[in-house]
From TrEMBL:
Residues spanning the signal sequence: none
InterPro entries recorded: Cro/C1-type_HTH (IPR001387), Lambda_DNA-bd_dom_sf (IPR010982)
Protein name (record): Helix-turn-helix domain-containing protein
Residues annotated as domain HTH cro/C1-type: 11-62
Pfam family, one: HTH_3
């Protein structure tokens, strides 16, 4: 699975989890764009990612974290989150990692 496919799968999973249809995204992106994105046929820009995440009411990083998990399903999702937290700590952005 490549990155575009993984991001599309993550967006689709989040959309379905929220009980939203592709039509619910009219005014955010076109149905065709969302369909192409969810099938990995589009490259997502950060601006479009922000609009989609706003509609989904999720943080912009969530689809990317899920995409990495879908690309490496043998890595537990919680471990990926801990790795991100550790990197934020090492870079000086957080004082005390919660999950170490």
């Amino acid at each position: 699975m490549d990155f575009n496919e993984a991001v599309g799968l993550a967006v689709q999973a989040l959309r379905r989890h929220k009980g939203l249809t592709q039509k619910d995204f009219l005014g955010t992106v076109s149905i065709q764009y969302l369909s192409d994105l969810e099938r990995g046929k589009r490259t997502l820009s950060l601006a479009v990612l922000a609009r989609i995440c706003e509609r989904l009411e999720v943080h912009e990083a969530l689809p990317l974290i899920l995409a990495k998990h879908f690309m490496q399903p043998t890595d537990p999702l919680l471990q990926t989150i801990r790795d991100i937290e550790r990197q934020l700590y090492m870079a000086g952005f957080i004082d005390n990692p919660l999950s170490w």
